[in-house]
Specification:
elongated; single chain; ten-stranded mixed β-sheet; four-stranded antiparallel β-sheet; 2 domains; mainly beta; Jelly Rolls; Tachylectin-2, Chain A
Length: 408
């Protein structure tokens, strides 16, 4: 199953997603909640989203907010959360910018969650929980070399301070933040924000594996890198989750030429014969060829980014200049030979269509007021599934892309 990326509508921004499948068989997303176009991380609220097919998602509304606490009302934002289920109750673990973590409880996986209060002996963002096969719950939190693991007590709201360890390190794993631990095939897989690439930029999700939940983790490699999703992107945070027999990595991609307004995305991942996870690329899912929103681009290059939404499309690709590229991975063609592009530009420019690295044709975009539809033909009709690029060329122009598509 290949989900459509981003998973949620273009005006919904959920980063830091922890995915869980509960007893009802649905998959639930617990994440932070960015506000469109704002330059600060996260907001004061959480939403929970669920799906039974990874395509259609239900927004269950506000599940928790800072206003529902007595101790954190003035903390400004809710950072990355996680959720666990035990004894008929769902425990939401949340954190605030000063590093304090709290717990809230509900009888429903979507809340509303009733606040219990801050956790003692825990200081550090990005809480994560893993319940082992023997019923022991483990708690993870922290950044850099202050990352920690500890046993949760049976009440699920306190840790055993005598059990605290440092499971990863900056030197050995290039750990940045964003702990998420799952037990897979009898071993513990620790997914985290990894700084091995791009001059210590935190755009990758790496993993480490151990026979123990709190120590002995050996670095395994990078699962996904969101570098190229946006000119301003520099962080990532996500989780692994199995849904209907397929494992997925959940992660986020930035918009608005910044580190915020992040979209939740997911990619199928696969294990080799030695249970290593292979690295996957960012995709758009499998897109129909007839009408593709520019906001579905998996990667952008040359300074273009997703912003605005002047056309009511949610987000457009803006700041398109000479040499910019928009990559859609992948498009399902059925013999189409014509192409249309809905765009605007202040000067004439050319949009070239490439599939799998081969030139297929172009569309000339002329200047005018607002968005218009421009048409062209491909050199030959295209069939099958292909990575598709729009490459833009011209002299000193600035353009925007709303959508495009292919016709017979």
């Amino acid at each position: 199953m290949n989900p459509m990326n981003p998973l949620l509508p273009p005006d919904i921004f959920v980063p830091d997603a922890e995915a869980h499948v509960w007893d009802d068989g649905r998959i639930y997303l617990y994440g932070s909640f960015d506000m469109k176009g704002e330059k600060s991380y996260c907001s004061r609220i959480y939403h929970v989203y669920s799906s039974d097919d990874m395509i259609n998602w239900t927004d269950h509304g506000v599940s928790f907010s800072l206003d529902m606490t007595d101790w954190a009302k003035d903390c400004g934002a809710l950072y990355a959360p996680d959720c666990a289920f035990r004894n008929g109750k769902y425990y939401l673990y949340y954190c605030v910018p000063d590093g304090r973590c709290g717990v809230a409880v509900s009888e429903s996986p979507v809340g509303p969650f009733c606040d219990v209060g801050p956790m003692e002996h825990v200081l550090g963002i990005d809480p994560a929980v893993m319940i082992d096969d023997d019923g022991q719950a483990w708690f993870y939190w922290g950044q850099f070399d202050k990352v920690r693991a500890a046993r949760l007590k049976d009440n699920m709201v306190e840790i055993d301070p005598d059990s605290i360890t440092q499971p990863l390190s900056v030197k050995e794993h290039e750990f940045h933040e964003g702990s998420s631990v799952k037990k897979i095939n009898g071993r513990y897989y620790y997914l985290f924000t990894d700084t091995h690439r791009h001059g210590n930029c935190a755009t990758s999700l790496g993993y480490a594996v151990s026979d123990y939940p709190d120590h002995g983790f050996e670095y395994g490699g990078i699962v996904i890198d969101n570098f190229g999703c946006d000119p301003g992107s520099w962080n990532n945070h996500g989780s692994l989750c199995e849904f209907k027999g397929q494992w997925y990595v959940f992660y986020h991609r930035s918009t608005h030429c910044g580190v915020n307004s992040r979209h939740v995305c997911a990619e199928p991942v696969f294990f080799d014969d030695e249970d290593r996870i292979g690295e996957v690329k960012m995709t758009s899912g499998i897109l129909g060829a007839d009408n593709i929103g520019g906001w579905r681009a998996a990667e952008l290059a040359g300074g273009a980014y997703k912003c605005g939404g002047d056309t009511g499309s949610g987000l457009d690709v803006v700041n398109i200049r000479n040499g910019c590229r928009a990559v859609f991975r992948s498009v399902s063609f059925g013999g189409e030979g014509g192409v249309w592009i809905k765009a605007s530009s202040d000067k004439e420019c050319r949009a070239e269509i490439w599939t799998d690295g081969f030139y297929k044709g172009c569309v000339m975009i002329t200047p005018g007021e607002g968005f218009s539809e421009f048409k062209g033909r491909l050199d030959t009709p295209v069939s099958g599934l292909h990575e598709t690029e729009l490459r833009f060329f011209g002299d000193d122009f600035a353009a925007k892309l709303c959508s495009f598509g292919f016709v017979k």
